[in-house]
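Researcher: Next entry in the queue.
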Amino acid sequence: MRQLSAVDTQFLNFETSTNVANIGGLAILSGRLSRSDLVSLLARRLHLAAPFRMRLVSVPFGLDHPYWTEDSRIDLDYHVREIALPRPGSDKQLGEQVARLHARCLDRRRPLWEMYLIHGLAGDRTALYTKVHHAAVDGVTGADVLASLLDTSPEPVEVEMAPAAEPEERIDTREMVARGIVKAVVNPANTVRFLINAVPHLDEIPLISQVPGAGLVSRITRQLANRLSGTAEVPDMPRMTVPRTPFSGRISAHRRFAYAALPLEDVKLVKNALGVTVNDVVMALCAGALRQWLIKHDALPEQPLVAGVPFSLRVSGDRRAGNQVTIMITTLATQVADPLERLLAVRDAMRLIKDRSSLAPASWIQELSDIMPSALTGLASRAAFNLFADSAGPINVMISNVPGPQLPLYVSGARLLSYYPVSVVTDASGGLNITVFSYDGSLDVGVIACREMVPDVWALTDYLRDALLELKLLAEQQ
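Model: Structure for this entry, 478 residues:
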């Protein structure tokens, strides 16, 4: 048995009928894939995908974080499902189907994942949509789970059988309760440690950073700490005001999902010609698309939008399950009309948070989660989300860019054409999330949104293409 971290537990605790913590991906495959072949593949490789085998065990009275336990009887007939689109099987029909599936909570009595084989997609294609609870995986471990099912050739590779498992450490109910009581006793010490560590970084914590004086306190504390330790000066974060947008506030239980494939070759052309990074281009594309959408809806704020950007805290080679992520905040320069000026402003903003995190990696999510007594985390999370829902929130939008393999991959002989991420929207993070996954010469973009806030979500994929074309023309003039 392995206990969930405080961060993992937060993904369980904030979940409600509207704030659903599923993350997943939509794989588009060439040709057809049968359910029997897919189930057979999973049965042979289930030992490579730990999150698919783990089931939650709760601690009585919520005194401590839950545990993962190995489920020795995985019911693949339950987890792997098969559906079909009605004619004509368009991409928009597929996006609508995925949006419905993604909005449904997973059954916590079982391992927290489901897989849907979707037939009827036009162009002799098959779709495979997989969702996993965010408490079980982050971006890195989610990619590892995907990789366990993929091959580099049409012929599936025979993998080694799982080694004989050592007997799992069992923790009985009394020991769980006892551990929870001990943690509650030492919790004040965790709080003190968090306060000491967090004060120099108040200006990078969403919402807290908007409190007047937070930046000044952070800067003075950092300068004092740096002088005492002789470490390099950490750059200051600008104070960011989060403007209200049509996708701010309380989200509904319903989703829209759209996707697009952008040529990685064009993105690299922009990168090389204009002296920026691929990630800078991705952020600028999102800024341009959001600006165009907001103008169309007569809702463009005078201030730049504020984006939350997930960063992995994993060291190289660390593939432990669970979440090891933090979120940095940055501005998107959506108020800037000129596309080149916007790109350079985004580059400068991203460079600032990269320089800052390289000198002092932000782990405020983990530390803040650790100080909260487990029995109160659910109540605190929901109270915080209610607070965010009545304001512009701590950020406007989440944007994530996950690097992937640059070679063709296969699932039981069917070639993987594209892989579109499907992420999370919440009252706190805003009703819109843009996640990018690079694969085999393409940037595969998944856009998930609250249905009521962004009903025309497919327009954003068109605007992303427009923004890339705009930057490409600039690059070709250099």
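Model: The two ends are 58 Å apart (CA to CA).
Researcher: Noted, moving on.
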